[in-house]
Design brief:
This protein is of the alpha+beta class and 378 residues long. It has nine helices and nine strands. A six-stranded mixed beta sheet has the order 8-1-2-7-6-9, with no helix packed on it. The protein has a three-stranded antiparallel beta sheet with strand order 3-4-5, with no helix packed on it. The mean pLDDT is 86.
């Protein structure tokens, strides 16, 4: 399980206020909760460990007044101005527990002691800070080792995901280029040969697509499992149980048209994933990823239903995959009925998948709110 990353937090105080500075650049999606007893912080940003999600929680030494406290998200840090609750006095430390966390540091630029004219107070604070840091050296070294191990795993995960998406892109791109050129130069002539040339790379890619169901289960990617589960299973059942065992439908142009639609979707999806793995942002790839599917998904569902319907006479005449009584299992199964049911499943699930993709597109292209000064009320 990955270790939670903590940002460096600097703090200072006066008799009336506590100031905090979270050292996190380019902060996005902040989740901040200021209460009288403590503070919870969680956000994406660039900190000491690079671009990650950072999180911390602290309980204050004494209560603060959340109604008179505020924070602001800036490009280079997140700053808090917390008003102490009760009589004006200096706290001996920020947190209720002692010793303080290793990621909590004193902000000497803003620090004020009880007697600002007495430089010895600052020297005492520095000495105490150094002593506390020495006590934390062993703990920090252990944390550094854990972060190094986590970083090595992250590098290995990045390499694996990048090449997985790259190989999938190459396979689907071959199918798109071959079938497009085939249609352009030869039209619908000899579609069985076109099927034979396209089905091998497509079948390999579809087999490896099962890994997209495994990736979120083991934590390699932070996505849901239902969308890839429905898409991968739906396509592979149609390819391996309906199309490949049926030599009659393989020569129908609709099958190659279905392969072209499937592959066209993936040709834009996998480069987007490759860019995300290496933290590269491209507006063009993003727009293509969340726009090209709009015409292709309905065409794909329609083509799948047509191909299944065209396959029913073959399985009706041959009885392939059907069971009739009497038999040793004493059960009967009529495969064409299952094909009709599969068409009904496509009709029922297609709106759900399209709606899922549309919600993703809306979230991706939702206008970003300008960063403003936030006040968190309890």
């Amino acid at each position: 399980m990955a270790t939670t990353l903590h940002p460096i937090v600097y703090w200072a105080q006066t008799e009336d206020n506590i100031s905090l500075k979270v050292d996190l650049r380019d902060t996005s999606d902040p989740d901040i909760d200021v209460t009288a007893e403590g503070l919870y912080f969680k956000a994406f940003g660039v900190g000491a460990g690079g671009l990650h999600e950072y999180e911390f929680q602290m309980d204050f030494y004494r209560n603060v007044n959340p109604d008179r406290s505020a924070y602001r998200v800036m490009d280079r840090a997140v700053e808090f101005n917390l008003t102490k609750d009760g009589p004006a006095l200096f706290w001996p430390r920020l947190t209720r527990d002692d010793p303080k966390p290793a990621w909590l540091r004193i902000d000497f630029d803003k620090w004020k002691s009880e007697d600002d004219s007495d430089e010895e107070d600052e020297e005492d604070v520095v000495k105490k800070e150094q002593e506390e840091q020495m006590r934390q050296i062993e703990k920090e070294l252990l944390e550094t080792k854990e972060q190094d191990d986590e970083s090595a795993f992250a590098d290995l995960k990045t390499v694996y995901l990048f090449f997985f998406n790259l190989l999938q892109f190459i396979g689907y791109a071959y199918v798109v280029v071959y079938l497009f050129c085939r249609y352009a130069f030869y039209g619908k002539e000899n579609m069985k040969e076109a099927f034979d040339r396209a089905v091998i790379p497509l079948g390999i890619c579809q087999m490896f697509a099962f890994l997209e169901i495994l990736h979120p289960l083991i934590g390699l990617v932070k996505t849901g499992i239902m969308a890839p589960l429905m898409q991968v299973l739906g396509r592979n059942v149609l390819l391996f149980l309906v199309i490949l065992p049926n030599p009659e439908v393989q020569s129908d142009p609709m099958v190659c048209y279905l392969f072209l639609v499937w592959s066209s979707v993936e040709v834009f999806r996998y480069p987007f994933y490759m860019a995300g793995v290496i933290d590269y942002s491209s507006e063009v790839l993003t727009w293509l990823r969340y726009t090209v599917w709009i015409p292709l998904y309905p065409l794909g569902f329609f083509s799948e239903a047509i191909v299944i319907f065209l396959s029913i006479p073959f399985y009706d005449d041959t009885g392939k995959f059907s069971l009739s009584l009497p038999n040793q299992y004493n059960i009967s199964f009529y495969f064409p009925y299952w094909l009709y049911a599969h068409i009904a499943i496509i009709v029922c699930l297609a709106p759900s998948l399209i709606s899922h993709m549309w919600r993703q597109r809306q979230r991706r292209f939702r206008p970003k709110k300008p960063r403003t000064f936030h006040v968190k009320l309890n």
